[in-house]
Amino acid sequence: MDASRFTVASAVVxxxxxxxxxxxxxxxxxxxxxxxxxxxSAVVGAVFAGKNFLTIRERGVPSFAAGMMATVLGLWLIVAxxxxxxxxxxxxxxxxxxxxxLAAFSAYTALVAVExxxxxxxxxxxxxxxxxxxx
Length: 135
Description:
- By secondary structure, this protein is mainly alpha-helical.
- The chain has helices spanning 5-27, 32-59, 64-79, 89-118.
- 41% of the residues are buried.
- The chain has four helices and no strands.
- The protein starts with a helix and ends in a 17-residue tail after the last helix.
- Residues 121-125 have low confidence and may be disordered.
- The chain crosses the membrane at residues 7-28, 34-54, 61-82, 94-114.
């Protein structure tokens, strides 16, 4: 089964979200606590998003586990800047943007994996849908 272009693009956008979240605290010279938390979370998110991307390239279907773990880490990147008192607006915005890209597009790939597992049923006339048996 070949993955759609949108599924491959979703995996790439999830990886790019990790890059944004990783670079933002370094480029904006954030405090050590937020810098370590966000960059480490972005690296771990990139591991799962990268595994998901490689699975798509090899098998044509994303990995549900990798997609869900990347989604959870993306959600953490959205919340992470709100846990600290001294975080500027640019750092918050960039970290949350990277987390949103990671979470949203990884969640999509996880849903594609579920859809691929269950498959789509076909009717007798070749159209997708409920196979009630109308002829």
